[in-house]
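Hi R.,

As promised on Friday, here is the backbone we talked about, encoded as structure tokens. Could you run it through your design pipeline when you get a chance and send me back a sequence?
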């Protein structure tokens, strides 16, 4: 994939920028340079977005790449054309963004859009507009996804330099992301979790066994100290104990059953004898109850006689009650008859009054006729009065309209004069509007300049603080480096002393081994005239020498790494300081040229103070001018309203004049007509109101007379009707009274005859007393029947008990009760003993079952745990090799990367260096498996990568980065990537290292591949002829410039 042309619109700091990569075709290496934050890496983000619809970094979404300065009218889009395997591809993408609606007002959110065109030669062979299809097509063409593309095309040089000297654990974390070996890590964690759960489960089972054994109730014959014996011994003892306990429990239950049988037999005999004694006692009681009932017979004979009398009275009671009802009816009839006679007398008197009233109304008939005649005459004169009234009303209304229109006309003419004067005054004031607007625009521009300067100043203050903190940190690290240098020197001296002592000891050993005629192991002489004499020295073992050498090597590695880091950070500090002064000087120059500062100033605080003063002053002036502009705009709006009002008011005044003249003519016409009508009216009434009032009075009198005649006639008719009805009611009541009286006499004679026959007297008081007690008849009857029932029941029960008892006599139950109680106590004792042994035996039986089950489970699980433990140790690298499965896989990947990297390193270092995996295991797992050594052909030995200089570590890291890209390409199916980007990593190099790095880059075999270096280092701009320069334009915008030789 070779990019040809990239167009960015409102993407990051680029407003509308096109980068033509075809101008760099002749360069194997080109530079993307610019200030920090200018947008160098954004170019790679744009390429990634065009190809995959996402940015190169996971922490930046495509929506966030939309320019801050972009308004809602202009969209964000990226267009990329690239060549791949003989075909030309053109891709355009837009992220999700908020833009103006295409129709109507307001904004809406537009979803992501894209278009892909494919050309073969000059002919377009395909066009795709659906995002899903575009993504599938491009991945199919490139054969890699976004993550792989970023890893292959963008090489983070600084990260690979850190990767060189990182521990195996840190390398593992980096390689895991690249080669996606998280599966092995997850597998290891899953196995560990399985082992943990299995071990926990086994431990829980063992704890359950221990808990159950602690609950066992051991019998007295258990072995001594059984609780302290192992599980198997306790299990055997418990099994034997439970066998004996179950046999003893069985015997005890048989004894309990025998006692229960004897108890049931004795208790049955006791209950039988007790029941017969109760029957004998009940027979005696019933015989006594019969004697007492027979003694009450005379009392119930008297009660029977009373029942017979009450029954007779009950039969006569309906006739007696009918007699009482007829007596009441006679009394009611007499009262009604008296009331009807009184009503008849009242109606006769009322009838006479209404006849008299009718005669009086007939005498007033002449007056009523006169009123009717007068009313007819006056009603004929009423229209003339009504016409006069209407004319008077119309005249008054016309006068009011004349008055109102006259006032409105004067008011309108005055308003017209006032508005004309205001219009003239506002026109004069608005002549200042243009000057005020220009002044405000100038102040706004100044405010923007000041705001940008304030933001830059704030960033400079942050940079100044960061530089100060970095300088303090460097000073502390320099002190630490000095101390580390002393420690290394001390370690070197210690190692030299030990080595000298060890060599001296070797000499002593050789001297002791010298024999005449035997060759010297040093010079080969057969004679030894002057053997070396060495003073006694302390012995030094090989292990001590190795430990001292390892300690020295460790210190030297730490010292080299510390020096490298200090050099990098020192360079970074100097670079940041230079950038700070460069940006500060540029800001001061800009402020002086814009007039914010009167002269150049070197002090940041002074610039900040003067800038804040200018901002405050400009803000005050802006507010004042805006107030003036707002007032003028208000006057302008007011003038528009005044002119509109003037036009409307002129028309209104004209209409008022015309209306006034019309209404005045109408008023005069009504006035003449009213005078003519008034001459024709009678003199008795002043107006229509007086006439209508008199007519109302006449009508009231006429209606009152007619109503009085009608009412009197209606009332007289009603009285006559009531009087006839009352006479009819009187006759009916008299006839009814005669009938009731005759019936009453008949019933009275019948009752008297019955009383005389039953009670031998005609006096009704005996009957009345019996009637008062009739309600007790039922109780008396029930009482008598109950007595008879008791007699019969007692006789029947006596007969039944005599048949049951027969010849049986009372039995003494105390002896039998004592025997039963004795058996109960024995049964209770045996039952308690059985319950206690059963509970204890059942508890131990249950514990024995669980212990056996858990013991078998532990035995079955232990083999699984042992196998799982071995597997976890192997996968996790906990063994002696300290190499886990994931690191083993990554070791193979790294070995492949180093194989490819050494091809580049051989070229870049002229065959001097080669990188190899460290073969020996480290002291800890984190330092084992992925450690890298460098073979130096000049000295013919391996050494630590920590000992490489800045330039040497750069070419080693570059080789690693290039190799990684090639390995990933090969693993992705041998894809073709024709352009690579190396991101930073140059700023921390010193001059010598940078020269070596540039020489290495120039020696890279291009193979038709371009390498882009993303850096802000100044020396690179001087040495790399092909460049894409990113230049800031202010307000967050940047432009690009392609530089070629």
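Update: got your reply. Pasting your designed sequence below so it's all in one thread:
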């Amino acid at each position: 994939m070779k990019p040809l042309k990239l167009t960015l619109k409102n993407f990051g700091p680029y407003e509308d920028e096109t980068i033509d990569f075809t101008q760099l075709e002749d360069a194997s290496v080109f530079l993307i340079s610019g200030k920090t934050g200018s947008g160098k890496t954004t170019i790679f983000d744009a390429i990634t977005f065009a190809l995959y619809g996402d940015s190169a970094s996971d922490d930046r979404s495509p929506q966030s790449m939309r320019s801050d300065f972009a308004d809602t009218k202009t969209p964000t889009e990226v267009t990329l054309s690239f060549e791949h395997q003989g075909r030309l591809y053109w891709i355009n993408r837009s992220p999700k963004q908020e833009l103006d609606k295409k129709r109507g007002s307001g904004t809406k959110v537009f979803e992501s859009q894209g278009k892909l065109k494919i050309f073969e030669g000059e002919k377009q062979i395909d066009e795709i507009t659906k995002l899903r299809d575009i993504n599938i097509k491009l991945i199919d063409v490139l054969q890699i996804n976004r993550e792989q593309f970023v890893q292959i095309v963008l090489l983070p040089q600084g990260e690979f330099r850190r990767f060189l000297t990182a521990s195996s654990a840190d390398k593992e974390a980096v390689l895991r992301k690249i080669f996606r070996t998280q599966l092995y890590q997850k597998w290891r964690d899953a196995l560990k979790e399985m082992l943990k759960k299995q071990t926990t489960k086994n431990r829980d089972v063992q704890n359950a066994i221990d808990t159950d054994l602690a609950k066992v109730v051991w019998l007295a014959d258990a072995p001594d100290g059984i609780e302290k014996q192992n599980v198997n011994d306790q299990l055997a003892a418990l099994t034997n104990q439970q066998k004996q306990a179950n046999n003893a429990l069985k015997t005890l239950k048989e004894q309990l059953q025998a006692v229960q049988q004897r108890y049931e037999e004795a208790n049955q005999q006791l209950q039988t004898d007790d029941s017969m004694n109760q029957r004998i006692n009940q027979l005696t009681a019933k015989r006594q109850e019969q004697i007492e009932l027979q003694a009450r017979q005379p009392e119930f004979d008297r009660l029977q006689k009373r029942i017979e009398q009450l029954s007779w009275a009950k039969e006569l009671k309906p006739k007696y009650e009918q007699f009482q009802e007829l007596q009441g009816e006679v009394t009611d009839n007499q009262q009604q008859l008296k009331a009807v006679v009184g009503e008849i007398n009242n109606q006769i008197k009322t009838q006479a009054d209404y006849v008299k009233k009718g005669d009086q109304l007939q005498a007033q008939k002449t007056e009523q006729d006169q009123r009717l005649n007068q009313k007819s005459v006056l009603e004929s004169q009423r229209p003339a009065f009504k016409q006069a009234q209407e004319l008077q009303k119309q005249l008054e209304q016309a006068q009011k309209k004349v008055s109102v229109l006259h006032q409105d006309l004067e008011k309108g003419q005055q308003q017209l004069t006032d508005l004309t004067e205001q219009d003239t005054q506002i026109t004069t004031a608005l002549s200042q509007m243009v000057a005020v607007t220009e002044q405000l625009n100038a102040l706004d521009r100044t405010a923007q300049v000041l705001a940008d300067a304030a933001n830059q100043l704030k960033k400079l203050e942050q940079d100044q603080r960061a530089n100060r903190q970095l300088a303090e940190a460097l000073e502390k690290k320099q002190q630490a480096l000095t101390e580390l240098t002393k420690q290394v020197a001390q370690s070197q001296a210690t190692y030299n002393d030990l080595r000298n002592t060890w060599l001296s000891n070797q000499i002593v050993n050789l001297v002791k081994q010298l024999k005449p005629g035997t060759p010297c192991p040093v010079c080969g002489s057969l004679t030894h005239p002057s053997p070396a004499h060495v003073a006694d020295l302390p012995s030094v073992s090989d292990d001590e020498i190795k430990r001292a050498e390892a300690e020295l090597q460790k210190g030297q590695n730490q010292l080299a790494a510390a020096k490298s880091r200090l050099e990098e950070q020192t360079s970074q500090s100097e670079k940041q300081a230079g950038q700070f002064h460069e940006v500060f000087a540029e800001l001061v120059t800009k402020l002086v040229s814009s007039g914010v500062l009167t002269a150049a100033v070197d002090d940041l605080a002074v610039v900040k103070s003067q800038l804040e003063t200018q901002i405050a002053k400009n803000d005050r002036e802006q507010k004042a001018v805006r107030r003036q502009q707002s007032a003028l705009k208000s006057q302008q709006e007011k003038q528009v309203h005044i002119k509109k009002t003037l036009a409307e008011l002129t028309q209104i005044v004209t209409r008022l004049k015309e209306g006034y003249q019309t209404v005045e003519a109408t008023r005069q016409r009504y006035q003449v007509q009213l005078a003519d009508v008034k001459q024709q009216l009678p003199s008795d009434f002043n107006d229509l109101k007086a006439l209508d009032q008199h007519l109302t009075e006449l009508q009231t009198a006429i209606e009152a007379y007619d109503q009085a005649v009608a009412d009197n006639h209606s009332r007289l008719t009603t009285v006559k009707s009531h009087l006839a009805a009352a006479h009819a009611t009187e006759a009916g009541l008299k006839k009814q009274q005669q009938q009731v009286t005759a019936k009453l006499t008949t019933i009275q004679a019948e009752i008297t005859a019955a009383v005389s026959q039953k009670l031998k007297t005609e006096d009704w008081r005996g009957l009345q007393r019996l009637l008062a007690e009739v309600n007790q008849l039922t109780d008396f009857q029930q009482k008598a029947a109950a007595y008879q029932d008791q007699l019969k029941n007692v006789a029947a029960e006596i007969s039944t008990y005599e048949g049951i008892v027969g010849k049986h006599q009372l039995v003494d139950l105390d002896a039998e009760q004592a025997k039963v109680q004795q058996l109960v106590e024995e049964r209770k004792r045996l039952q308690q003993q059985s319950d206690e042994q059963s509970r204890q035996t059942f508890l131990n039986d249950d514990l024995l079952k669980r212990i056996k089950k858990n013991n078998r489970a532990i035995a079955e699980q232990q083999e699984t745990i042992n196998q799982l433990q071995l597997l976890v140790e192997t996968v996790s690298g906990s063994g002696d090799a300290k190499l886990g499965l994931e690191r083993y896989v990554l070791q193979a990947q790294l070995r492949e990367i180093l194989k490819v990297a050494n091809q580049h390193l051989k070229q870049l270092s002229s065959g001097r260096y080669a990188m190899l995996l460290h073969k020996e295991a480290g002291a800890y797992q984190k330092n084992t498996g992925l450690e890298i050594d460098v073979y130096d052909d000049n000295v013919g030995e391996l050494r630590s990568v920590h000992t490489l200089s800045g330039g040497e570590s750069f070419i080693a890291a570059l080789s690693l980065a290039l190799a990684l890209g090639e390995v990933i390409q090969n693993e992705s199916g041998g894809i073709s990537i024709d352009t690579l980007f190396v991101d930073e990593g140059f700023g921390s190099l010193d001059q010598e290292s940078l020269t070596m790095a540039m020489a290495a880059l120039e020696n890279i075999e291009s193979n038709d591949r371009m390498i882009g270096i993303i850096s802000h280092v100044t020396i690179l701009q001087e040495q790399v002829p092909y460049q894409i320069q990113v230049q800031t334009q202010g307000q967050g915008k940047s432009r690009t410039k392609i530089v070629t030789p």
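One thing I noticed while checking it: The mean pLDDT is 80.

Thanks again,
M.
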